[in-house]
Amino acid sequence: MSKAEQIIATTTRASRRKSGFLGQRGRIALLTLTMLLMLFVFFTQPDVRTALTSWTSLTSG
Predict the structure, then answer these.
(1) Which residues are listed as membrane-spanning (predicted)?
(2) Domains held by the chain: number
(3) pLDDT tens, 1-59?
(4) What is this structure's pTM?
(5) pLDDT at res. 5
(6) Residue-number span of the structural domain to which 10 is assigned
(7) What backbone torsions phi and psi does residue 11 show, to the nearest 5 degrees?
(8) CA distances from residue 11 to 23, 44, 61 in whole angstroms, order as listed
């Protein structure tokens, strides 16, 4: 194996290792942010807020 082939193989392995770890954290962060955005949009709708208010008043007495 030539020196260039060794460098290419080492770089490929290192980039695969990095993208695997950071890629997983990136996916989790993206999923978390997406869910927070969806919850924010959902709970700021007037119909949802009135439904939640009436539901909580039923359960609290």
Answers:
(1) 26-45
(2) 1
(3) 788 888 888 876 665 555 566 678 888 999 999 999 999 999 899 998 888 888 888 88
(4) 0.51
(5) 82
(6) 3-60
(7) -65, -40
(8) 17, 48, 65
Identify the residue whose tokens are 């962060």. Answer: 29
Closest CA to 51 of 59, 40, 1, 27: 59
The 3-state DSSP composition of the chain as helix, strand, coil percent (nearest 5) reads: 90, 0, 10
Tell me the CA distances in angstroms from 36 to 24, 25, 32, 45, 50, one per residue in order: 18, 16, 6, 15, 20
- Locus of tokens 């695969």: 16
How far is the C-alpha of 9 from the C-alpha of 17, rounded, in Å? Answer: 12
* C-alpha of 16 from chain center: 21
